Amino acid sequence: MKLKLLYTCMAITGLAGTAFAQETVDQAAVQKIREEGLNHSQVMKTAFYLTDVSGPRLAGSPGLKRAQDWAVSQLKTWGMVNSKLEPWGKFGKGWEVQKNYAAITVPYYHAIIAIPKAWTPGTNGAIKGEVILVKADSVAELDKYKGKLAGKIVIFDTQNTLKRSAKPDLERYTDEQLAEMAAAKPQPAGQRRAFDQNSPQFVAMRKARAMRTAISQFLIDEKVGLILSQGRGTDGTTFTTNGASYADTAKAVAPELETSGEDFLRILRLVKAGQKVELEADIKTQFFTSDLQGYNVIAEIPGTDKKLKEQVVMIGGHLDSWHGATGATDNAAGSAVMMEAMRILKAIGYKPKRTIRIALWSSEEQGLFGSRGYVAAHFGDPKTMQLKPEQKTLDAYYNLDNGTGKIRGIYLQGDSAAGPIFQAWLAPFKDLGATTVTVSNTGGTDHQSFDAVGLPGFQFIQDAMDYGTRTHHSNQDTYDRLSEDDLKQAATIVASFVYNTSERQDMIPRKALPTPPPAAPGR
Ligand SMILES: [Zn+2]
């Protein structure tokens, strides 16, 4: 007999009450999932293939394609069906680094830590040149450099210094912080912070952007050899920023190296002190234009219940990464956890009532393109709220994209009615530190694409670890930063959430359908 336990505890948290008490959890299934997920895990092996074996997984790059192909075949091997690459629309050019060498040679030799900026060209072979400090607060001031920068290596004065911090890099949520999140009040719907286009900061931002564009054009026209820019970060850690344009129509830009703070400021101090600095560099990058489409990895465990099998429970995370390292915590961690959750459910022989589908998105880093493309193709258009029939059968979507930290709970994205359900589903994992349900929203990742068309889309609460301080988009985001116990815990909890969602009599309750944003004036 299946062991069903009715939770009778009332009012553990403000969100409890009768709905929580009535939510049933299949304890026997939870035990099986825990046993498989905690004691027979393959999550680190999966993470190894997505990081060390595939390499950096920048959107459109060969590294992402290696990881996608491996994921499609691994999911097939584990018994998933319809495992495939599904196009989501036109992305643009692929790009990868094929050589990255740069060093100070005068006044002495020192190899520098630097990352070619994404979607920038190489130096077309080895170059050697003096480093020139370009000072210009207006386009007109650039004129004094006309004819003097060809083949040179240019640097700008960033006025930055490196700030040291005594705060530890790696942190976990405290009970107080989690209690505060659990007590958060629902945010009134549609409360978006209004941006005043004419506010001083906006005006300053626009001016700075225009100046950057003018400088970048000037440097191309002057045929500079290489631009050195200061990467964010300290202690040799360099965070990559958004690259040049990947559009197939994009204008050419100059080669650029995002340089570690320590190396950049040493060069800047020397040049500003009138010391001659020479650098040699050999940067080779490759653009790929044979296939401009973007693809998501999709696979399924088909539903078996006559009535419910048409309904779909989805899980996912983005597989693409930046190129400074191997995108381990962002987001091989989330991708490996989601693949592992599928493997666990298969390994325990689960025959789900509803169909279970995994999606490993691409181009999240450029703007949630993979998930938005998928949602537009399958569920509806957030701009018009024109919905498609599949929008009715998508039960819920669960996302993981906040690093390697273990699950501490879940964000309801304003869907309060789902609170007591998730509270009950977390209860069996209290011992693993997962307790918290907050009504708050969280942003910046793929569950938002579902939320935008009125579908229940959730991101789990995860311990921060050293995500913001060390790994997120940096040259330190390697397999070494992954925490095995945390990823095992996360995969186990995700697998149980999927199990419960698929087994539940009713679908996950939904918020009111969002109203489409007002059409832009003149459209
Ligand atoms: Zn991410």
From TrEMBL:
Compartment list: Endoplasmic reticulum; Golgi apparatus; Lysosome; Secreted
Entry keywords, A to Z: Carboxypeptidase, Endoplasmic reticulum, Glycoprotein, Golgi apparatus, Hydrolase, Lysosome, Metal-binding, Metalloprotease, Protease, Secreted, Signal, Zinc, Zymogen
Tagged with keyword Amino-acid biosynthesis: no
Subcellular location, principal: endoplasmic reticulum
Gene3D superfamilies xref list: 3.50.30.30, Zn peptidases
Keyword Zinc: yes
CDD domains (alphabetical): M28_like
Signal peptide location: 1-21
InterPro entries registered for this protein in UniProt: CPQ, Peptidase_M28
Domain Peptidase M28: 296-498
Subunit-structure text: Homodimer. The monomeric form is inactive while the homodimer is active.
Protein name (record): Carboxypeptidase Q
Source species of the chain: Mucilaginibacter rigui
